[in-house]
Specification:
Number of helices: 0
Strand content: 35-45%
Strand order of the largest sheet: 1-8-3-6
Distance between the termini: 8 Å
Shape: globular
Structural class: mainly beta
Number of strands: 8
Order of helices and strands: EEEEEEEE
Length: about 90
């Protein structure tokens, strides 16, 4: 896994689900889940969301997401991570 160079917390709401493009216009490289639960994401190559059931507290998931949905997500303290590269 590449080293992460930037991180940001994620505040979600139903009216404005966040588009998670990085400064290079690509999707995130990983997501850290502080408090576990369900996590609804749209991955960078998909058009619909999928729910990752029962994610584990304190775990970093190496995946490329473009949206983290408020509806369907019960996990909290989510941090967006990016390598700072177009090619992670």
């Amino acid at each position: 896994m590449a080293k992460m160079t930037s991180a940001a917390t994620t505040d979600l709401n139903d009216e404005d689900d966040q588009k998670l493009d990085t400064r290079f216009g690509t999707s995130l490289d990983a997501i850290y889940v502080g408090v576990g639960g369900d996590l609804k994401l749209t991955l960078s190559g998909d058009t619909a969301g999928v729910i990752f059931k029962n994610t584990i507290s304190g775990t970093m998931y190496e995946l490329s997401a473009k949206v983290i949905w408020s509806t369907g997500t019960s996990a909290t303290d989510i941090i967006r991570l990016d390598t700072g590269s177009q090619y992670a």
